[in-house]
Amino acid sequence: MEDVSVVQDGENHTGLAGAKLQASAERVYTASQAQLVWWKFRKHKVAMASLWILVVLYTIAIFCEFLAPHSPRRYSAQYVNAPPRAVRFAGEDGISLRPFVYGYTSGRDPVTLARVYEIDRESVYPLRFFVRGDPYKLLGVIPWDVHLMGTSENVPLLLWGADELGRDVMTRIVYGARISLSIGLVGVFLSLFIGILLGGLSGYVGGFVDTIIQRVIELLRSLPAIPLWLMLAAALPADWSPVATYFGITVILSFLGWTALARVVRGRFISLREEDFVLAARLIGARRLYVIRKHMVPSFASHLIASVTLSVPAMILAETSLSFLGVGLQAPVISWGVLMQSAQNLRSVVQAPWLLLPGGAVVVAVLAFNFVGDGLRDAADPFSQ
User: Fold this and answer.
1) Is residue 273 pLDDT above 90, yes or no?
2) Are residues 205 and 322 in the same domain?
3) For the chain: N or C, fewer Cβ within 10 A?
4) Which residue range is the domain that position 331 belongs to?
5) For residue 7, what pLDDT is reported?
6) Distance of CA 382 to CAs 9, 80, 97, 297, 307, Å?
7) Do 371 and 328 have their domain in common?
8) Are 356 and 289 spatial neighbours (Cβ–Cβ below 8 Å)?
9) Beta partners for residue 100, in sequence order
10) 22-36, 93-107, 109-123, 350-364: which is most confident
């Protein structure tokens, strides 16, 4: 009897396992392409972590006015090149549940005459949240003056130090995220439109059109990138407003960044244009642009998404390089490249190394985009191992 019960239990367990496998298989068979890609992308732990980093970065960029402790143009001669303040929970009076920062006392080095700062432990400034401070317009529309954190005495927080004019480095990095991160997205979407249009026509139509487009691509790719960027960026009128300059740089980067994507699209179109579903659409009288937009592009949309994700960091680095070299965005525009201009000389690096923090923000954003792009590229074929 015991042997029979053991056999029955084994059969029940086998039946449950088989039912679970069958349900899992049916779930896979009935899932859409987007669901399959997402399920495989979630298995890429580094890509998922990078995706959350990008969510945080773009949230900071959108709500930079509220998240920044001060106005980006607020300066103080009292805090020129002041070092970062440390957030503390323990002080002279013991442990405090409310975080606080100490004040500074400044003086001059008798040998180098450089300004030096020492911690003033008698000046204690509690760190508070949702405090009133410098007025701003949230999202450029809503007038407000509440900041996420600050001090009750409205003393500059300077968690990441101050620059050569006494401006808060953390505040300026937070504001710079909006320009540097958005120029990558805007530029990539323009490149995506041009690349799909010209690459699609080249691969789908072929013949003379393909020859002309490929020769233009070869011409653009044969030119050295940085000198060409410098030449086109320097051609922008000097009297343009910062907003016009921003869009001008975006168009320039897009004009130079579509060639690689067009080559990829052309190759995919050449392999797809003889497929049965494309021939069927042509036989019923569908126009070329309709076939491209409704049938061919969606068939490899996952590959396009991966390519676009990997192109965004190149756009961010291009804007940062142009601004760092002085021919891209210029003050009063705040971007990570503009902020890095102040760290060009050895004096800044030695006396105020925190001015290099915008470069760290660029590295984090670029690595996050690259890891997400790798995850999307691996997930583009959900049935591969």
Assistant:
1) no
2) yes
3) C
4) 174-379
5) 43
6) 36, 54, 50, 18, 16
7) yes
8) no
9) 88, 126
10) 350-364
